[in-house]
């Protein structure tokens, strides 16, 4: 069996001192490659599994590098005292970490060997066997449910949602903890009916107690230009605070603990 320190995968960033992607202070490992193409994606450089050139502020850099589990852990372990004091740990994000299941599992196992709590952020668009491989190493799953309509999901994310919903039911039964997150995107899923449908579904998943509404933002827009791509959201403004509050009240009717933000 391969030593997890020698497992290799492709990532595009490691971000230290995050407080938004799970409890406490965390290090986020951003995997490269995602099967979806959400119009609002704020990390478009995460989508292709291949390395790419990204130009920002007149500087061109290569995005994506192949690393070993041991190399990632060297970076992760620099902040051990912060994790311990804050109840934090490590979150695998992306892109989609479920598309590199062996590497993801190796990192998760290395974290556990070092006493670090683990989380993943996932859109759930991956084969079931990948989910099974990764899930055994995860303490907390933060999973997006973006829409209940297969057609609308396909129009805005590039694929229908059946596999995602099937995986959500499996994850709900088998994960230690699952929190559902909903990116709130104007013109896509920001009506009361759409949020109520997602929250109602989430409330019926066994073991799910929390739902987070994540307001759309435009922070990744310049990266589209830097990759030579169009930003398909155009001039759509982020939802207002009062709109988010109204949708929060709608989501709370499901009985889940709901909040705005991750
Ligand atoms: S699932 Fe996430 S990483 Fe993938 S395209 Fe959508 S927003 Fe981007």
Detailed description of the structure:
It is a single chain. This protein is an alpha/beta fold and 262 residues long. The chain has one domain (4-260): Alpha-Beta Barrel (TIM Barrel). Helix content is 34%, strand content 24%. The chain has helices at residues 69-76, 80-86, 101-113, 128-135, 150-157, 162-174, 192-204, 221-226, 241-252; strands spanning 8-18, 26-31, 52-56, 59-63, 65-68, 89-93, 118-122, 140-144, 178-184, 210-215, 257-260. The protein is globular and about 50 Å long. Bound molecules: iron/sulfur cluster. Iron/sulfur cluster is lined by residues 34, 36-38, 41, 43, 46-47, 94-96, 123.
- Low-pLDDT residue intervals, each spanning 5 or more residues: none
Name the helix and strand elements from N-terminus to C-terminus, one letter apiece.
EEEEEHHEHEHEHHEHEHHE
Arrangement of strands in the largest sheet: 5-1-2-6-7-8-9-10-11
Tell me how many strands there are.
Answer: 11
Largest sheet: 9 strands, mixed
Number of domains: 1
Descriptive tags:
262 residues; alpha/beta; TIM Barrel; 9-stranded mixed sheet; two-stranded antiparallel sheet; 9 helices; binds iron/sulfur cluster
Question: Which helices and strands, and how do they pair?
Answer:
Elements: E1 8-18, E2 26-31, E3 52-56, E4 59-63, E5 65-68, H1 69-76, H2 80-86, E6 89-93, H3 101-113, E7 118-122, H4 128-135, E8 140-144, H5 150-157, H6 162-174, E9 178-184, H7 192-204, E10 210-215, H8 221-226, H9 241-252, E11 257-260
Parallel strand pairs: 2-6, 6-7, 7-8, 8-9, 9-10, 10-11
Antiparallel strand pairs: 1-2, 1-5, 3-4
This protein binds iron/sulfur cluster (SF4).
Iron/sulfur cluster (SF4) binds at residues 34, 36-38, 41, 43, 46-47, 94-96, 123.
């Amino acid at each position: 069996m391969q030593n997890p320190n020698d497992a290799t995968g492709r990532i595009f960033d490691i971000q230290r001192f995050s407080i938004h992607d799970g409890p406490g202070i965390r290090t986020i490992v951003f995997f490269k490659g995602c099967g979806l193409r959400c119009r609002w994606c704020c990390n478009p450089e995460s989508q292709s599994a291949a390395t790419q050139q990204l130009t920002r502020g007149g500087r061109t850099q290569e995005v994506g590098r192949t690393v070993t589990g041991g190399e990632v852990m060297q970076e992760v372990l620099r902040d051990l005292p912060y994790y311990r004091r804050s109840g934090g740990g490590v979150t695998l994000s992306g892109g989609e970490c479920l598309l590199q299941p062996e590497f993801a599992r190796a990192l998760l196992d290395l974290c556990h060997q070092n006493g670090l709590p683990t989380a993943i952020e996932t859109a759930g668009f991956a084969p079931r066997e990948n989910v099974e491989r990764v899930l055994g190493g995860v303490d907390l799953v933060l999973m997006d449910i973006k829409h209940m309509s297969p057609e609308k999901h396909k129009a805005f994310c590039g694929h229908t949602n059946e596999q995602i919903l099937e995986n959500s039911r499996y994850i709900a039964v088998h994960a230690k903890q699952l929190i559902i997150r909903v990116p709130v995107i104007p013109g896509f899923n920001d009506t009361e009916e759409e949020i109520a449908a997602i929250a109602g579904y989430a409330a019926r998943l066994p073991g799910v107690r929390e739902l987070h509404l994540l307001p759309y933002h435009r922070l990744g827009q310049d990266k589209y230009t830097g990759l030579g791509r169009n930003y398909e959201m155009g001039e759509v403004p982020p939802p207002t605070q009062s709109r988010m509050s109204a949708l929060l009240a709608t989501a709370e009717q499901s009985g889940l603990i709901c909040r705005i933000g991750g």
